[in-house]
What does this fold into?
Amino acid sequence: MTTTDDLAPEGAQMTFAGRMSYGDYLHLEQILNAQQPLSSAHDEMLFIIQHQTSELWMKLAIHELQAARNALIERDLPLAFKMLARVSRIFEQLNQAWDVLRTMTPSEYTDFREDLGQSSGFQSYQYRLIEYLLGNRNKAMLRPHEHRSELIQQLQQELARPSLYDVALHVLNASIPLPQALIERDVSEKHQPHALVQAAWAKVYQNPKQYWELYQLAEKLVDFEDYFRRWRFNHVTTVERVIGFKRGTGGTGGVSYLKRMLEVELFPELWHVRTDL
It folds into this structure.
C-alpha cells in the first residue's frame, strides 16, 4: 500500500547527509534565529521582522545602486536602466512592508517600546549609505555611527565617490555640456540645484528622440525617486498612526523629523524641469 509519505516530486533529492540543502545555502538557521524579542509582547516579533527584512531589501538596493552607478561610469546605459528599474521594485516591496506594520496599534507598541532603548531606524547605516549613494550627503549624520569605526570608514568611502546623480550628470555633460565647475565639484558635498542643469534636462525632454538614452535615464531616476518618496511618506504615516507626535526612541522629533525628510529632493532638476515643459 502506498501512502502520501512515500510520494515525492519526480526526480527530487530526498536525502541531504553531506550535501547542500535549501536551508544550508540560505543560512536559514542563522536568519530564523536572529529574532530575539526583549519582551513578552506579541507584536514585538512583527516589529523585529519588519525591520530586519527592510534591512535585507536595503542591502539588495545598495548592491543594485552601486551596479547602476558603475554601469553609468562605463556608459552602459541599458544595464544601468535594468538596475534602476529593479531598485524601484525593491522600494515597492519596502513600501508594502509598512502596510503590515500598520496593523500594530498604539497600545500594542507601548507594550514593548521601552525595551527598544535608544535604538531607532534613523541609526540604520544602510539607509545612510543609500542616501549618500544617491547624493543626499549630510555629513552630520555620520555621528550616529562613530562608535563603529568600520561603518564610519564605509560611509566616508562612499562620500569620496561621486553619487549616482553626479555620475548621471557626467553622462548628461557628454551630450549637453555643463559648466566645468559643476562637473569638477567636491563630490563629498550635496549637489545644489543649478539652472543650467535644469536647462540641459529640459533640452532632453524637449527632444526625446535625439537624446533617447538620456530621456530614459531621466525617467528611470524620477521613477526611483517617486518610490523613495512614497517610502518616506509611508514611514511618516505609520509612525504618526502608531505613536502620534511623541519623540522617537532615538531622540528625534519623531513625526516632525520625518516630515522634514519629505522635503529632501534627490534629483532636484528632474522635478523642477517639469514646470518648464
Residues 201 and 270 are 7 Å apart (CA to CA). The chain has 13 helices and no strands. The first helix runs from residue 22 to 26. The two ends are 75 Å apart (CA to CA).
